[in-house]
Design goal:
The protein is α+β, with helices and mostly antiparallel strands. The chain has one domain. 32% of the residues lie in helices and 26% in strands. It has a three-stranded antiparallel beta sheet with strand order 2-1-3. The longest helix is centred in the middle third of the chain and has 13 residues. It is elongated, with a radius of gyration of 14 Å.
Amino acid sequence: MPITKSDRISGTLYVIAADADEARSRLGDYLRDEADNFGVYDVQKDAVTSLHNQHGSYDRDRERVYAISLDIRIADEK
């Protein structure tokens, strides 16, 4: 899901991180455009491939791919 400026963002992003807190932090940086290497991907397969390329093997004690679902929208007025 490419991130674009709009009133609504929904979908799933895949983040390479050591734990859920780091995944949340990396996603925040990605959404703020504050870092060069976010480890955030639109497609799960791309994230898994990148993880394998970084470590040469899939080692769950290092980093994993986390799926983060987004539903950012304007709150309904009542």
